[in-house]
Write a structure and sequence with these properties.
Structural class: alpha/beta
Number of strands: 9
Helix content: 25-40%
Number of helices: 7
Radius of gyration: 16 Å
């Protein structure tokens, strides 16, 4: 039976400190999800957090790797679930199912043990994970303040809520998800619907260059994202 796309878990006040470091979150599907909490985390200082989604054929660690290099310096909590099958339910079956249910459970676990900054709570991903992040982010803009999409293929919101800020980056030589039929169509659609979008088109293929990941993180952590350019081209 299809699952509700609306996520119901919400951050709350936390008095006790949760453990830090890399933690596996086993699930019944046999594919571990992961949580990374930087060593400087303190429950009296709500942390920014990103839910990161891997690409097709990938693993949760691939999602984690999108921003893990920068997590300690940024004080950023990372949650990376694993899709039940080779890609996410919305893409494989065209409806939300076991994957969104896992995301709901994983968020509930994190929110129960860690203080999260609700003004800096992102969902992001690469390739199929980016398409899923955009779709889930639009459906849950009342939870996610930001959406980060690296090389997305499409967006399929079912019930848009809220108005999250959106960062999209795509290589101009991408031969897996060509930019001309993907991000160059997604960005105008989002802008037409009123979403604040920062778009970065870079010289390269179906990858996330380190400089692009760092730029996305800087955009996410900015207190006033309105100062960021709406569109840019950067190698």
């Amino acid at each position: 039976m299809p699952a509700d796309s609306h996520l119901h878990s919400r951050p709350k006040s936390i008095a006790h400190p949760g453990p830090t470091g890399l933690q596996a979150l086993p699930d019944a599907n046999g594919r571990d999800s992961y949580l990374y909490v930087p060593p400087g985390y303190r429950p009296d200082c709500p942390a920014p957090m990103a839910l990161l989604l891997h690409g097709a054929g990938g693993h949760a660690l691939h999602g984690l790797d999108l921003l893990r290099e920068h997590a300690d310096a940024a004080g950023l909590i990372l949650l990376a679930p694993a899709s039940r099958d080779s890609t996410w339910d919305l893409i494989a079956r065209h409806y939300y199912g076991a994957d969104v249910e896992l995301i709901e459970r994983s968020l509930a676990m994190v929110f129960a043990d860690y203080a999260i900054d609700t003004t800096r709570l992102a969902v992001g991903g690469f390739s199929d994970g980016a398409s899923y992040a955009l779709s889930l982010g639009m459906d849950n803009g009342d939870l996610f303040s930001h959406v980060i999409a690296f090389s997305p293929g499409f967006i399929l919101p079912l019930a848009s809520r809220g108005l999250p800020r959106v960062f999209i980056a795509h290589g101009d030589a991408d031969d897996v998800l060509p930019v001309a039929i993907c991000s160059r169509r997604i960005v105008p659609r989002l802008e037409k619907e009123g979403y604040p979008v920062t778009y970065v088109e870079f010289a390269g293929g179906h990858v996330v260059p380190p400089g692009i990941a760092q730029r996305a993180l800087g955009w996410f952590l900015e207190h006033d994202n309105a100062t960021m350019p709406d569109q840019a081209v950067q190698a």
